[in-house]
Amino acid sequence: MKITYYGQSCFLFEIGENRILFDPFISPNELASQIDVNDIKADYILLSHGHQDHVHDAEQIANNNKATIVAIHEIATWYGNKGVENTHPMNIGGKVTLPFGTVKMVSAVHSSSLPDGSNGGVAAGFVVETETQTFYFAGDTALTYDMKLIPEQYDLDFALMPIGDNFTMDIHDAMVAADFVQVDTVIGMHYDTFPYIKIDKEQVKEVAKMVEKELILMEIGQTINL
């Protein structure tokens, strides 16, 4: 599958003919100034929680593409009330079958509110299972023992995890989380966008190397095949 990084926690996955976008925060992100939101094509937009730095561009991209926003009930309802045509509400532990595979909403330990202060439900992560690969998008989360439940149900190929510390896990906790979910390949996210979450890239790579994990830090706008 093709994966394109748009900064912060925003990734576009191309799975067969389907394009799945996670947590679009692009237009306010100075690090992603070269990205034009109107150029992004998406069929589904998965939102881990309601914070501005994860949902800012969701409405525009959804309306541009008639994409379906998949999110916890409170967030999906909020977007529906704003006029977004296609939404799919979920809740923790639920699973939905979509054209590219299944999406299960799993626990994340974090807060959630929408940009206008509305209730954002609770934060979540996603396990996406396709015909060829299965991956875990952790969202914004602390390290939690709930992660150990995931490999009891899924054989993951890789995971996307926050590593910026302060609001989420740091690299050390993320590497423990990688052990919990039994993956050796981690794509880092939620770092460098704000002063609070600046990281030393060489240092975090060294931490991953010491525990024999592959840490992928993508450049904004970069596309990889995984």
From TrEMBL:
GO terms for molecular function: hydrolase activity. Pfam families: Lactamase_B_2. Keywords: Hydrolase. It comes from the Bacteria. InterPro entries: Metallo-B-lactamas, RibonucZ/Hydroxyglut_hydro, UPF0173, UPF0173_UPF0282_UlaG_hydrolase. Residues 7-190 form the Metallo-beta-lactamase domain. Belongs to the UPF0173 family. PANTHER family: UPF0173 METAL-DEPENDENT HYDROLASE MJ1163 (PTHR43546:SF3), UPF0173 METAL-DEPENDENT HYDROLASE MJ1163-RELATED (PTHR43546). This is UPF0173 metal-dependent hydrolase DXT99_04165. The lineage of its organism: Bacteria, Pseudomonadati, Bacteroidota, Cytophagia, Cytophagales.
